[in-house]
Amino acid sequence: MSRIRTFYSHQFNLTILICIHCVLPLLLGGLIYVLFRPLTLTMFTWFEYIALMDSVHLLRAAFQKYTYYPDWFYYSLPDGLWTYSFTSSFILIWSHSSSLKYWLSIPLSLSLIPEILQYFNFLTGTFDLNDLIFQLFGFLFSIFTFQLCNRFF
What we know:
Blueprint: H1 2-36, H2 42-49, H3 53-62, H4 71-75, H5 77-94, H6 100-103, H7 105-119, H8 129-152
Helix pairs in contact: 1-5, 5-7, 5-8, 7-8
């Protein structure tokens, strides 16, 4: 019976960690996009297609008074949150593996390389040093957070 209790306790804790470190950052980054980014983004066409634009307009109107954040909040923070979430998911999946550091090269590469390719015009888009900094910070902050959690819990 105690093995079953331990299993479910572990599953519950893992679910909480996934919600806090993977799902929540993605939701916050997505909410920033929905509430504050220009309506010319392709995702708003998708929202129109699935009949969600009325809800989007209501949400944007409700948050209109909060549109005076610095540019990094709208344009770079979602990238950092995405990188944090991606890195955290790999840490949660591969935390008991000796090859974790190799697995972590995937979220680091997939977040930084496209930005670097934009700098050299090998990829369409606009290079932004803030994006690079936020992505690197999201990566490192995820690692630091889980190391801190492992040390104290």
